[in-house]
Description:
Low-confidence stretches of chain C: 218-225
Structural class of chain B: mainly alpha
Number of helices of chain B: 4
Largest sheet of chain C: 7 strands, antiparallel
Structural class of chain C: alpha+beta
Order of helices and strands of chain B: HHHH
Largest interface: A-C, 37 and 33 residues
Low-confidence stretches of chain B: none
Order of helices and strands of chain C: HHHEEEHHHHHHEEEEHHHHHHHH
Number of domains of chain B: 1
Strand content of chain C: 5-15%
Number of domains of chain C: 2
Helix content of chain C: 55-70%
Shape of chain C: globular
Radius of gyration of chain B: 15 Å
Mean pLDDT of chain C: 90
Helix content of chain B: over 70%
Distance between the termini of chain B: 42 Å
Distance between the termini of chain C: 34 Å
Radius of gyration of chain C: 24 Å
Strand order of the largest sheet of chain C: 3-2-1-4-5-6-7
Oligomer: heterotrimer
Amino acid sequence: MTTDRIERVARLNRNRLVCAVAACLMAYVIARLLVRDIAPMPDATDLIHIGQMIAVFCLPVMIVVAFGVWRRHAGLIGVGTCGCIAAGIWVLVA
Amino acid sequence: MTVVSLLVLWVIAFMCHAALWPARYGLPVLPSAAQSMMGVTRFILPVLALGLAVEGQGSVMGVLLWFAALSFGGLMAASLLVLRGTIMREIRGEN
Amino acid sequence: MRETLRTRLGWLHGWLGYVAGLVLTCIFATGSVAVFNMELTRWMQPEVLRAMPAPPTATALDAAARMVALEKAQGVLAFVALPGCRSPTLDVLHYNGHEFVGARLDPTTGALIPARATAGGGLFYNLHHTLYLNAQMGTVIVSIAGIALLVAIVSGVVIHIHALVPDIVMLRLSVARLRAWLDAHLLAGVLFLPFMVMMAYTGVLVKADMTLPGPPFHSMPLRTSSPPRAPMQALTYPPLAPLLAQARASLPGQEPGFILFAPNGVHIFAGDASSAFLTRDHADFRMPDGRALPVNTAASPVARTMQLMRGLHYARFAPPGLRWLYFLSGLCATTVMASGLVLFVMKRRRHAGHRQAHRLADGLNIAVIVGLPVAMLALLWGNRLVPVRLNGRESWETGIFFTVWGLCALHALFHALRGQASWAWRAQLGLAGLLGGSLTILDLLCCPAAFQALPGLHMAVDGMALLAGVTAIYARGRLERP
């Protein structure tokens, strides 16, 4: 392998790693916001469970989308937008 | 008894599925009439199995058993295909 | 290098799958065995010879209540587990920080059965849901691994989507070794996809209060890692037999499973085996007169859904046949993960085989794929060989399990880092074969009476160990072929 190719592969792997970590963190924050949005009251057990069911379903999908759709970081931006909407709803409800 | 029936139905369905992809599984090519019959059987048998499972075991147990039969039926079908491939290779080797 | 969705998700599937796979293989292997945790405990306590459960008599229940009161006076929070199909004794149990342990009473006479103290099947159950760490940290790690599994499944499906349906029963053992491993990984992965998704989703969901909690102030009380030691006031309880009869009447369709004792009342809970919905419905009785309080068994649709999720994951409702299907499906899911680990290392061997990191990965694979089964078999051996009356016997058994696993890991890493991983594979597979193959003989020699009293149970456990041993020997033989 040429030095140039090795460097390119190393850079690609570094980018992938950073993107994967960012996707996981972002998806987790959004999943938590989702639970809070669906169940704003602490004693709404049923709503908390619904929120958790949806969040656990969405979390892996969000990670895959945020990481997989890489062109111009469309996945990260898309999932991030969902996160902003979720945060906005949370602020409004709060 | 239900489990055995479900397994048999799923194995037949998977074998029909394999017959529809003869090149991939190294099976003889079927005439088009037989192929369409295989296609219908592949669709009908799992539905029949689901009905049988839910009817006999209730919804929760029935669905669980149906999925379990899918998994183990698939494994059995794959094993049968491997066995067939091995036998065919041996026959060809003898010839 | 052209970046496509497939290459990108392939990278995620490979790396996330490998790192999480090391933990997930342990979680799935121990979870599969934990499906039979109570049966294993029975095998590990050969002094309990009763085969069929009997309804507990008033004498036995009162003896159990006295024992609970005595333990409470010593600061131990105990409860009574009623006899059922899977455990025919009346048990007075407490949580020791890792598992439920305690005394076993004869349900007819109430006499204490002098059963050996054992880690039992509870060790596998504990390893499955907390990795034998403290309750909170362990559960969070296992939940993260569960989410990683879901991510690996979603990415795996996207990578394989074109051939998912056509190749659903494709297995080519006669082709190159890498291709054959990949076929086996894909075959089992696709066929057991519903099972893996169900177990991962329900597993993460039932513990979601720790990873995805609701709004603040709703913190679920966590089980503390050790019971309170402060002595409490000894309490006397009303006769339990009439309360049990009343509870049976007020929990229609559900058989009482266990009795909890609080300072102000007695709570009789429905057994988990009653239905696929793990309801935990209970009949409450006021202390000290034992007057019945109103029973509420109504649950909202969401609560029912959560009960079903719990029921599906814990599988305590499952009759023996379905329990075997859970066990075998779990083993196949473990095979998916183990084959993924092997593939990860095999694929990189040509380019990176000389690197220490690659050798480390190879060593870790051996420690997980062979070391864990060896440790499990060693635990069963330990159960038969550690003296019955030894103090802290259950800790000895746990110690044997972890020591053997640790030694296997060290052995694997030592050889793998020197570039002789195949030597470690062969040695440990041989050891697994030896331990598994000869467990039946050991069992027959040490506990002939138990074998005679419960032949089905002993043949099942010994047979599984034998099967594991034969598989290990076969795999060892395959490794020696060029």
